Amino acid sequence: MPSRSIEAAPVVSLAHVAFAYGSRSILDDLNLSVSAGESVALVGRSGAGKSTTLKLINRLLLPDTGIVSVEGRDTREWNPIALRRRTGYVLQEIGLFPHLTIEDNVAIVARLEGWPEPRRRARAHELLELVGLAPSEFARRWPRELSGGQRQRVGVARALAVDPPLLLMDEPFGALDADTRQELRGEFQRIRRHLHQTVIFVTHDMEEAFALGDRVGVLEDGRLAFADSSCHS
Amino acid sequence: MVERHLFLVLWSTLVAVAIGLPAGIVAAHRPRVGRPVLAVASIAQTIPSLALLGFLLPLPFIGGVGPRIAIVALILYALLPIVRSTAAGLKSIDPAVIDAGVAMGMTPRQLLWLVELPLALPSIVAGVRIATIVGIGTATIAAAVGAGGLGEYIFRGLSMVDSTVILAGAIPAAALALLADAVLTWTERRLSPAHARASRTGPVALAAAIVLFLAVTVGSASPARDAIVVGSKNFTEQVVLGELLAQTLEHRGLHVTRRLNLGGSFICDRAIRSGDIDTYVEYTGTALAAILKQPIVKDPDTAFAQVRDAYGRAGLSVLPSLGFNNTFAILVRGADADALGLKTIDDLRRVATEWRPGFGYEFAERTDGYAGLASAYGLRFSAPPRVMELNLVYRALSAHQVDVIAGDATSGLIKSLDLAVLQDNRAYFPPYYAVPVVRSAVLLAHPEVRDALAQLAGRISEGDMRALNAAVDVEHRDVAAAVHDFLQRLE
Description:
The structure holds two protein chains of two kinds. Chain A is an alpha/beta fold. Chain A has helices at 50-57, 80-85, 102-106, 108-112, 117-130, 135-138, 148-159, 178-195, 206-212; strands at residues 12-21, 24-34, 39-43, 65-70, 73-74, 87-90, 166-170, 198-202, 215-220, 223-227. Chain A has two domains: 6-86 and 165-227, P-loop containing nucleotide triphosphate hydrolases (Rossmann fold, 3-Layer(aba) Sandwich); 98-161, no CATH class. Helix content of chain A is 34%, strand content 25%. In chain A, the strands form two sheets. Chain A has a six-stranded mixed β-sheet with strand order 6-7-8-3-9-10, sandwiched between helices. The longest helix of chain A has 18 residues, at 178-195. Chain B folds into three domains: 2-221, MetI-like fold, CATH 1.10.3720.10; 228-324 and 432-490, Periplasmic binding protein-like II (D-Maltodextrin-Binding Protein, domain 2); 328-422, D-Maltodextrin-Binding Protein, domain 2. The interface between A and B is medium-sized, with 24 and 22 residues.
């Protein structure tokens, strides 16, 4: 199935990418091109290589063969630290820093980038507001004091801290109950309308994929095939 | 004593943290490199503390008597808990948190400082807590190599057979350990994520206090320069004699540093040969047989001349005898001596087959000790000798745990425990006249040392020595005061 035509130069492109963990082949001749502002959902069985694909994009992994490029540049040529700082990443396990307050968690990338304290704090509060957590109530609290849904909102806010042009989300709502998923899904659509980031996200939930993705790619046997969202009833 | 004890423990723990923390990080991040590090630390931990000191003693730079060697030994003991808890703390961090840090674009260094170390901190502090508590206990052994600390009370108490004095060292050591445990447990709690809201000023203030203490004590621990260092072995008579030399030298206006209670003959000999101490009192028989490994000489003057010549070649001057002969004394309970009519060691043969002897480590090992005695008198005992701390044998005899012991002829306990000396009728024991040994270089630099010590020659009889020992061991008088009174009477 051909992917739909792309007007601008792609923000992310994977061309003939293969990747194996030892002798276990995960990806085999994977092709993907994502243009600016697009939201792409990747679905597939567990072990199909969804997370691996995300990790190839922010250079947590390098491909065995083929080329992964971000903003037209091969990830091999990117400084991994610089690339990761301009790529927001939301982990399935969230991975909030338990020893930092909510606002410090959100501001961590800004801190790494050397933003001054007041600017960091202002940005953290702005983002908490955006993800629906009142800063007056949540900024000084600790990750363990929050519910799963609240933590995931913090995870999203943290990924957005320095306004990265690209956002990668690995099963962002995977660990949550159905009601919270539904709620966050709506919330996420609202945030996206607000920010216009390019988003690539992984999910095992078809409904979620079609609700949030402009396109839905299915990973199977190491390759990616695109489903037409209009086919989905 | 408590300050010195803390000084030893804090310095060794601090250095162990400085080494153990990076080692623990390496062990966690690179298990292949880390495994041998942990193995070495584990092996160090299993060496008994006295044996470890024995191994370290002859080494260059770190060996020799004094606090340095004790600190090195304590560092080796502290390493394992610190390395292990650091590695464990790092490995127990939720991998998702590490993944998040990497994905956020942290450099390995930022990941370590911003995420890994803060999260491993409670575990690291727990390791430091264990190392400190172990250190406080182990540091009592430091007194065996003249490093001071609360162990001095324990060793002195053992030699006085006085549990009060032992407790004077043991109770503060236990109290220190409990205090350290409480303070560090509190620190650990404050630092754990569960209490992250709590202010961290407490632990910071604690660290500042420790640094301040070390800054203050490091000055006081270094001995005064150009002082004559007086050493002694680790039993009462030797401490008394060390104090006697020290006061005599001080009377002459010389500066003296006391390094009393160092250890056995071998440790004192090593200390004076390496220049760690300048003078101590040796016994001619011990010098000849145990140190010079020469055949036993029965004539006191020949023995003295041989020792003086051999020591002279090694740069050590042997001064004329203080006057008394502290030969070995074979002792039995006074009641047994009366009931069985025991007067000489020959008489012992009648009862030996039913008796059990008890000896100190040196007597049990030395050629002029048990083996020679048994063959000279043809003694056969019912059981092999029980070997224990020299200071405990008197008490063991009195408590009927053994029936005959080898003690010092000048021991103050002979009278107080109602023991009887069996006469050495075959003149088996060589003469053990007490002679001050001084480094010849010191005599050249300070001729007044020779003059001062010459005043003591021939002035102390066996009776005097027994009285001095009894004053300390039985009457529990302060060593310095007893020696002071004695010197006043001498003048």
